[in-house]
């Protein structure tokens, strides 16, 4: 229990630091995806600091776990994590979206160490991850493949084609995480096209499906541990999906849950309010 509490404290610290780093990147670019970045921050932090087996000094290591950021517009949440882990220098963050920079507003696997797929067009992520999971298994590798999608992304039919194939192939090494923040660029998912209950829909495709609190490091770590246990017990078992219930813009209290802040700019006093909100909210949650 002590080890778990120590891990959660570390992850909480990184979640705060990475949100503040995301504000830094948006300041450089002049605009950014606050809503989808902050909703998935705990997911990304828990994955990279406690679950994914990667080597920053050897990013193309064949035995690594693969990660696919289906919602590529949330890359400004991922870049600071990769820099913090040593995939590339922290100074590169100050070039985000600038002419000639390797760090574009969607990740490019040809330019950025630690990126396994050049995502951007929504809906491709699960198909790519499914192919990776099948490929590493055929190659005799023990690698796990994680795909992070948005709930709005589920509107793409290709997602469900991949879901059917993955379960048919028994890809127990495939973990999909749906960032269910309930908003997209055009409004709420309930208004536009809802796939709730998402977990039951994946279960109907033959997946192991469960819901977790996407802002709880404790719940996320427990779900990852259970994923590994199922995979060890049944290597040819079903793939897993975690429907992570989250809040768009989590941490900045005056934009939370608002589709209008899918993308935007917080400058001047608004940026100062955002910084204060992040520090205040997460310090209160630790008490």
UniProtKB/TrEMBL annotation:
Swiss-Prot/TrEMBL keywords: Thiamine pyrophosphate
Official protein name in the record: Transketolase
Protein family (similarity comment): Belongs to the transketolase family.
Cofactor dependency: thiamine diphosphate
Superkingdom assignment: Bacteria
Residue ranges occupied by any Transketolase N-terminal domain in the UniProt entry: 17-270
PANTHER family: TRANSKETOLASE N-TERMINAL SECTION-RELATED (PTHR47514:SF1)
SUPFAM superfamilies on file: Thiamin diphosphate-binding fold (THDP-binding) (SSF52518)
InterPro entries to which the protein is assigned, alphabetical: THDP-binding (IPR029061), Transketolase_N (IPR005474)
């Amino acid at each position: 229990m002590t080890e778990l509490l120590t891990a959660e404290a570390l992850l909480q610290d990184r979640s705060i630091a990475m949100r503040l780093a995301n504000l830094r990147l948006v300041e450089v670019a002049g605009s950014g995806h606050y809503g989808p970045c902050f909703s998935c921050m705990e997911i990304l932090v828990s994955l990279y600091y406690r679950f994914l087996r990667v080597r920053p000094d050897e990013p193309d290591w064949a035995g690594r776990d693969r990660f696919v950021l289906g919602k590529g517009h949330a890359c400004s949440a991922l870049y600071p994590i990769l820099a913090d882990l040593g995939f590339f220098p922290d100074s590169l963050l100050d070039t985000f979206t600038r002419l000639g920079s390797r760090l574009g507003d969607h990740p490019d696997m040809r330019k950025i160490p630690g990126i396994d797929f050049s995502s951007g067009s929504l809906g491709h992520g699960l198909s790519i991850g499914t192919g990776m999971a099948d490929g590493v298994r055929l190659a005799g590798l023990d690698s796990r493949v994680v795909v992070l999608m948005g709930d709005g992304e589920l509107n793409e039919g290709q997602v469900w084609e991949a879901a059917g194939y993955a379960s048919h192939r028994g890809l127990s090494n495939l973990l999909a995480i749906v960032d269910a923040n309930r908003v997209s660029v055009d409004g709420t998912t309930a208004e536009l096209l809802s796939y709730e209950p998402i977990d039951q829909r994946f279960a109907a495709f033959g997946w192991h499906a469960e819901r977790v609190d996407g802002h709880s490091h404790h719940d996320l770590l427990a779900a990852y541990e259970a994923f590994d246990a199922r995979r060890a017990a049944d290597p040819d078992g079903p793939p897993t999906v975690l429907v992570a219930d989250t809040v768009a813009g989590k941490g900045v209290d005056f934009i939370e849950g608002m589709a209008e802040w899918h993308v935007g700019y917080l400058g001047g006093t608004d940026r100062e309010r955002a910084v204060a909100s992040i520090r205040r909210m997460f310090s209160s949650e630790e008490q």
